Amino acid sequence: MKLLYDQNLSPRLPRMLAVEFPSSAHVREFGLARGTDPAVWAYAAAEGFIITSKDVDFQQRALLRGPPPKVIWIRLGNCLTASVAALLRSNHAKLLAFEADPFASFIALG
User: Fold this and answer.
1) 108 exposed, middle or buried (CB, 10 Å; 0-12, 13-18, 19+)?
2) Three-state DSSP class for 95?
3) I want to staple 52 with a disulfide (CB 3.0 to 4.6 A). Which of 8, 39, 69, 72 is the partner?
4) What is the predicted pLDDT for the residue at 81?
5) Phi and psi (nearest 5°) for 26?
6) Domain spans of the chain?
7) DSSP assignment of 22-90, as one string?
């Protein structure tokens, strides 16, 4: 499972979660740190990533357009990066099922 962490999440997450989510990356690795939502969406769809974000706009886009890409909506307020990592890690099995479901477009965690 390849996660693309949005700009509102720490660029340390790919390294912190490399075992659970290999081949994941942060938008800044692709020059998208200041990219528009449509640009991030298009990149994720083209490269097989699941967008992971705190931004409700991606959740809404997923409902309107459907996959690909899929969206993981992190519903945590201001928190430590370790809290986001723990949330994703603790939901690993649920996220694998989400990835495998051809009809699922987004999942909210929080």
Assistant:
1) exposed
2) helix
3) 72
4) 97
5) -105, 150
6) 3-109
7) TT-EEGGGGT-TT--HHHHHHHHHHHTPEEEES-HHHHHHHHHH-PSSPEEEE---S--HHHHHHHHHH
